[in-house]
Amino acid sequence: MNEFGQKIEKDVPVTYFSLSRCWSCNELDTCVLNTGTNDVTVITVKGRFNLKSASFSCTSCGECREALDEEYVYLEWLPGKPGKDNNTPGTSQEMFLRSLSQMSTQNGRPCKPSYINPILFSKAYDENNLMRYRIQNEVLLYKPDICWACGEHPIALHVDGNLKCYRCITAKGFETDPLFQDIMIASDKDVKEFLDLINNVIPPQSKNKENCGAAVYQAAKTTSSSMKGLDETGLLIMSCRHGWVWRALNLFMGETYRYVLYLHEYAKDKNVRFFCSDVLLHLGSYKKGAGATSGESQEQNNAHTSRFVTTTKHMSASRRIDTFSASFIKENWGKIPRMVKGILKTYHTARVSVKWYRKQTSKLMDARLEKVNLLCEKGASLIEEQKVTLVDYNQKLEHLRVEGNKNGKAEEEWKKWKSLLLLYGYSTDIL
Predict the structure, then answer these.
(1) Residue extents of the structural domains in the chain
(2) Whole-angstrom distance, CA of residue 352 vs CA of residue 125
(3) Which of 132, 289, 344, 369 is the most buried (most CB within 10 A)?
(4) For helices 317-403 and 118-134, angle between their N-to-C axes, nearest 10 degrees
(5) Given the DSSP bridges, would you call strands 47-58 and 64-66 parallel, antiparallel or unpaired?
(6) Which residue, 290, 263, 257, is CA-closest to 274?
(7) What is the pLDDT of residues 222-241, one digit of tens each?
């Protein structure tokens, strides 16, 4: 709006951008931010904004130029080129390879857009992940399924299903054995044999007729139908209190307690004290020896794992297992440098919580004691009143015995005090 209240259009450059030194004359504080000639779309948490690129002019030498991509990146603006080819690197391997080819071409390496073979790249990528795993596991002796803080016997494990990690039944690919066979994700064959063993003892019924105990949650169902258009319907993942993924399995129907029981058996072999699950409703909080165990640690992992669905839903079954297994291993090892800091932070939080809970418990006990004392005082007062009433009653009876029927009111007084005696629960046998 101008000073006359009229709407005007004005080109606005990318803000929060400045240069401290001129690129030409090397003078300090001479660069001025101007509006560039290129259209730029800026996307932030506040929304999308159509701006102009940033350009700079030097007040000392008069040179002008557009801002470089490196300068945008340095100031944490990540430039993309969302044209019809969608060359922004993301979760799509195909678009990522196109971007690599374009970068090679721009840097003087002659190649076609399809210079990098997608099939060979996928195989090489998976083999590289497997090699890195074997180095960590067999040479450095890092076990991917053992948390560095918990050791081989964790105190608590939390199981939760992630139905966002599905795979479409129309997904194509070469079906081979996974490279990460039964390392992080349990073998589908072993899970099926376990489910068949349960079904021989407890035949599955209609999904609406049988629950695990008195639970009414969907995850507590004994059976569930498959989902239309999907092969694998999700993942059931188990992690410890530090977010370390211990084990997972593929779901071929909705989350049921039969799948949970498979991981329960795994946790039993690890001598886990607290097994937390939506099906079992056994949470670690407020139980002796559990400390501040929330039983919801897997929810944090789900926030990261769910992002893979944009690509894994179109993969073959074996490639999907390799992708998720490599992701779990990488995430577990990535937690190692942050584990000490996280444990110390949790310990500090626990100490503060202990002081707060002790203070709150003391307040509750004091309030309870005050209430008990008040009730005791009230009870003692009632007893004293009854004692006084009884003394008055005995004196009145003695008076009636002495006076007899002289005034003709003895019978009436006798009935009155007898009723009072019965009201307070005393015996009338003496009458």
Answers:
(1) 8-79, 151-338
(2) 46
(3) 132
(4) 60
(5) antiparallel
(6) 290
(7) 555 556 667 788 889 998 88
Per-residue model confidence (pLDDT) at position 88: 44
Q: Which two tokens stand for residue 206?
A: 């209609």
- Stronger pLDDT, 300 or 220, i.e. the higher one: 300
Residue with structure tokens 């509006």? 35
Is 411 within 8 Å of 418 (Cβ atoms)? no
Three-state helix/strand/coil letters over 354-382: HHHHHHHHHHHHHHHHHHHHHHHHHHHHH
Average pLDDT over residues 51-74: 85
Give the tokens for residue 35. Answer: 């509006």
Tens digits of per-residue pLDDT, 294-306? Answer: 667 788 888 888 8
Q: Residue 364: is it exposed, middle or buried by C-beta count within 10 angstroms (0-12/13-18/19+)? A: exposed
Alpha-carbon span 58 to 73, nearest angstrom? 22
Q: What percent of the chain has pLDDT over 90?
A: 1
Q: CA 1, CA 13: separation in Å to the nearest integer? A: 18
- Amino acid (1-letter code) at residue 426: Y
Q: Is the dihedral of CA 86, 91, 96, 97 positive or negative?
A: negative
User: What is the average per-residue pLDDT within 180-194?
Assistant: 88
Residues 111-148: pLDDT tens digits? 555 567 778 888 888 888 888 888 888 888 888 878 88
How many CB atoms are closer than 10 A to CB 195?
A: 17
pLDDT classification of 430: cutoffs 50, 70, 90: very low
**Which residue is it, tokens 């021989």?**
200
For residues 368 and 374, what is the distance between their CA atoms, to the nearest angstrom? 10
